[in-house]
Write a structure and sequence with these properties.
The protein has 144 residues and is α+β, with helices and mostly antiparallel strands. It has 2 domains: 40 residues; 92 residues, K homology (KH) domain (GMP Synthetase, Chain A, domain 3), CATH 3.30.300.20. A hairpin with a 2-residue loop joins β1 and β2. The protein contains 3 helices and 5 strands, in the order βββαββαα. The strands form 2 sheets. It has a 3-stranded antiparallel beta sheet with strand order 1-2-3, with no helix packed on it. Strands 4-5 form a two-stranded antiparallel sheet. α1 crosses α2.
């Protein structure tokens, strides 16, 4: 068994305009907008991160289990009410519910094997783990 160590993942967000932000991580840059019109909104990126993580872990687990994947699609729907974001109402600021449908095209026809595959993905996906379980977030500010 490998001896894995904690890894720090750093993301830096910068203001472009009052409703547009640039987020950098490693050599990558993502442009975000408030309403998700010209670029994705932060909440759309959250769901996109979940889709990408489920696909990535899905491929990894399939390879480990000897399952050949011909195609894999992840469809995600999040239910969101923006009232709290705009300072109105007392509903959650975040998503109320996330529904995921993983569509697989595979030579594996055994339902039980595919159920084990899905269970493994659910247990190992770090993005879904962070969404499903509380992760401490420490927010502070500094002037510059």
């Amino acid at each position: 068994m490998a001896d894995y160590k904690d890894t720090i993942i750093k993301v830096v967000g910068e203001r472009v305009t009052s409703d547009k932000w640039k987020v950098k991580t490693g050599k990558h840059e993502i442009l975000l907008t408030k309403g998700g019109i010209d670029s994705p909104s932060p909440i759309q990126c959250l769901l996109a991160a979940l889709a990408g993580c489920l696909q990535s872990i899905g491929e990894l687990v399939a390879e480990e289990m000897g399952i050949t994947i011909e195609d894999l699609k992840v469809e995600i729907e999040g239910t969101f009410n923006p009232g709290r974001v705009h300072g109105e109402g007392n509903q959650r600021a975040g998503l109320k519910e996330i529904k995921v449908k993983m569509r697989i095209k595979s030579s594996c026809s055994d339902e039980e094997t595919l159920k084990r595959w899905l269970k493994n993905i659910e247990e190992r996906c770090p993005v879904s783990d962070n969404l499903a379980n509380p992760t401490p977030i420490k927010i502070n500010f500094e002037r510059f």
